[in-house]
Amino acid sequence: MRWGGVLLLKLSKPLKRALFALNTPIMKIQAKICGLQTSDSVDCAVEAGASMVGFVFFPPSPRSVSISDAAALTSRVPDGVKKVALTVNADDALLADIVKNAGIDILQLHGNEEPERVFEIRHTFGLPVIKALPVEDQVDLMVARGYDAVVDYFLFDARPPSDATRPGGNAVAFDWKVLNGFSLAKPWLLAGGLTPENVAEAVQISGAQWVDVSSGVENTTGNKNLDKIRQFLEALEPK
Q: Are 170 and 203 in contact (CB under 8 A)?
């Protein structure tokens, strides 16, 4: 959390209590739990305080769900928690099916969609868009400038390994320091290699106000660990 622009995650308990006593508005670090496939994991993420829950519509991923299964899962999500559809270079037919039948609030574009395509999707389907971009160094961040006018959120993920079969969810982190002080007109989510053990440090170093996790709360790929989901979200609370 932040107070007056200062992250609260690593401040001492007495100082945190003093800041809270001032009754100053506090900005909570928001989290998206992605790659959900079961009712138990959806319920756990919601109950533990996730602001967004994500569902993958990309068959090469072991976390992929069908539209009908997604609809059953999103029906469990209360108002106030956003439901995100992760797609990779999806065509209009797939997007239309997702938007019409999956109970989704936000489209996450995790492929190599150019700004023109992102604008087209946002205009056609009328939903907010998260554009995921791979990051290795500050040069990669400059690419985001070209999308600023056509997205609602960015998601900065580690560049996938050369042999990866999917663009995200690879349990790979990048140097969080490249994001420190970086600003855009739109909010951004930090992703890539986050875990309950390192997310507080990642927020402290990067300055992220939103984080995204998938593999970091799993036992094996696609198999969510409910305790890890709770621990991840607890790690974002001031101690």
A: no
Q: What is the DSSP letter of 94?
A: H
- Please give the structure tokens belonging to residue 92: 């209009």
What is the token pair recorded at 229?
């989901």
CA angle 168, 169, 174 (to 5 degrees): 70
Domains of the chain (ranges, CATH numbers): 28-234 (3.20.20.70)
Q: Which of 45, 92, 96, 94 is nearest to 73 (CA)?
A: 45
Q: Which tokens in the block code for residue 127?
A: 């939903």
Cα 239 to Cα 237: distance, rounded to the nearest angstrom: 6
Question: CA 128 to CA 139: how far, in whole Å?
Answer: 26
Which among 84, 135, 126, 136 has a CA at the least distance from the CA of 109?
84
* Tokens describing residue 77: 């999500």
- For β-strands 52-56 and 82-87, DSSP reports them as parallel
Q: For residues 118 and 126, give the distance between their C-alpha atoms in angstroms, rounded to a whole number.
A: 12
For the record, the structure tokens of 31 come out as 């989290």
Per-residue pLDDT of the chain (239 residues; tens, 9 = 90+): 444 444 555 555 555 555 555 554 556 899 999 999 999 999 999 999 999 999 999 999 999 999 999 999 999 999 999 999 999 999 999 999 999 999 999 999 999 999 999 999 999 999 999 999 999 888 889 999 999 999 999 999 987 655 555 555 556 688 999 999 888 899 999 999 999 999 999 999 999 999 999 999 999 989 999 999 999 999 999 76
For residues 16 and 79, what is the distance between their CA atoms, to the nearest angstrom?
A: 30
8 A C-beta contact, residue 55 and residue 75: no
